[in-house]
Design a protein that fits this description.
With 431 residues, the chain is α/β, with parallel strands linked by helices. It folds into 2 domains: 13-186 and 347-429, Rossmann fold, CATH 3.40.50; 193-320, no CATH class. It is 41% helix and 13% strand. Helix 3 crosses helix 4, helix 6 (204-219) packs antiparallel against helix 8 and helix 7 (221-234) crosses helix 8 (245-262). The longest helix is centred in the N-terminal third of the chain and has 30 residues, at 2-31. The chain is globular. The relative contact order is 0.11.
Length: 431
């Protein structure tokens, strides 16, 4: 009986502790203009979770052109806690991030415009720009600064990390600290720093195995295509965008070295036995031809469209020129929607942005992987700003994370946040 009474008492106490916060939060959310919300909290979580739809102008400079609903997810830990705005580069990701964990912070995840649930009724591609996307983030920031008065952080991974940096550039006062992961800042539509990286990364014998692997596939293209045509048929893949399966195959082979280092594949996985099936299986594991199919290209249409503004990469065919059948010059890795008028890469935007990073880009902690291909166009921090870049030895695009920082880097990371914000980081919470 005493044990039962104790359980009831604890349940009442816990409910009484959390309920006022929930009531106050929902009251605050209800009063935010142009925001609808739904409680999706899970029992046992140390935070309240809400899915929100925020009304955003399609064109922030001309709201009269119409609106769309943008998906925002809030994880609330406390009104007095710091807050992280998570700048997704694509559709919303459901997982938590390291920054919110080590700071016990509220997290506001913002899905990128024209992705996932955040697509207007009519896709007006000309409004898918960096300027419009970061204006979305600024609008969300201004809404929630009415609720959260503590320190603000921004963070994102890959294209999301790139977005973190552009957001800091256009709205430097919105957050106190930016923490972008593996964020490339390309200097052209074909950033040739990628080629230099691929020619120098890793051990020479590994680079030789990669080259031999690609050469063998290209030399045996006709035989490979006989087998891949069955694979494509089974997966219901079509290749109308690139023109034919041959072009997509050559793109996949050229992509192989990029993806190999990006995802930290093992040199031991590269076959040398001249058995065609083994080579094809390795290609599919690392650089699947489906990536160059109509299905996948359409899925990332918004990403490719925006890459025409922010820059990207291409494929250097010079080492394989005598084997390449479908390309006379370096093909681009950008496949924008054919019905959309392409955005144009802006050297002026890049130059102004790079100058700002060099001269005014303060309070930024960059995290990059030592073998990640996307580290080729990484930000090189100058001594004119207080920011710091952490290049983690041996880390790839998926493992360049705070938890994998060497101890000396980890200590400096914690020290910088403490000096800039006065906040302590609970690094032991990361697994």
């Amino acid at each position: 009986m005493k044990r039962f009474f104790f359980f009831i008492f604890c349940a009442i106490a816990l409910t009484g502790y959390s309920q006022p916060d929930k009531q106050q939060l929902e009251r605050e959310l209800f009063n935010l203009p142009n925001v609808s919300f739904n409680n999706v909290s899970k029992p046992g979580d140390a935070f309240l979770t809400y899915d929100l739809m925020v009304k955003q102008p399609i064109d922030h400079q001309h709201p009269e052109k119409g609106y769309f609903s943008q998906w925002v997810q809030l994880k609330h830990r406390g009104f007095n806690n710091p807050t992280v705005i998570e700048t997704h580069g694509y559709q919303m990701g459901r997982g938590g991030n390291e920054v919110e964990q080590i700071l016990s912070a509220n997290n506001i995840g913002v899905e990128y415009r024209f992705f996932g649930k955040s697509i207007p009724d009519s896709l007006q591609w000309e409004y898918l720009t960096i300027e419009q996307a970061v204006a979305d983030l600024h609008a969300v920031n201004q809404l929630f600064k009415q609720l959260y008065k503590g320190k603000w952080f921004s963070t994102g991974i890959s294209k999301g990390g790139q977005t973190t940096l552009y957001y800091k550039y256009f709205y430097p006062e919105d957050v106190d600290v930016a923490i972008p992961y593996v964020a490339p800042i390309d200097n052209a539509l074909e950033d040739t720093r990628i080629y230099i990286f691929l020619d120098t990364i890793g051990k020479p014998e590994c680079r030789k195995k990669i080259y031999d692997f690609q050469e063998f596939l290209l030399k045996n293209e006709d035989k490979v295509l006989e087998k891949l045509s069955w694979y494509a048929k089974g997966a219901r893949l079509k290749f109308n965008y690139t023109g034919n399966i041959g072009k997509s195959f050559e793109l996949a082979v050229l992509e192989y070295s990029f993806s190999f280092w990006q995802w930290g594949r093992s040199c031991d996985s590269i076959p040398t036995n001249k058995k065609l099936d083994d080579y094809i299986n390795e290609l599919i594991k690392t650089s699947d031809i489906s990536f160059f199919s109509d299905r996948d290209i359409a899925q990332f249409a918004s990403h490719y469209y925006q890459a025409t503004q922010t820059g990207y990469y291409g494929y250097n065919i010079a080492p394989f020129k005598k084997y390449i059948k479908h390309f006379d010059s370096n093909p681009s890795a950008i496949f924008p929607p054919k019905k959309a008028k392409p955005n144009s890469f802006s050297p002026e935007l890049y130059q102004n942005f790079q100058r700002w990073l060099d001269e005014k880009g303060n309070n930024i902690l960059y995290i990059y992987g030592g073998i990640d291909t996307w580290s080729a166009p990484r930000v090189l921090v100058t001594d004119r700003v207080n920011s710091k870049s952490f290049l983690i030895p041996g880390a790839n695009h998926g493992t360049a994370r705070i938890k994998n920082l060497p101890e000396s880097m980890k200590n400096e990371f914690v020290s910088r946040i403490k000096n800039w914000t006065g906040l302590d980081c609970k690094m032991d919470i990361l697994k």
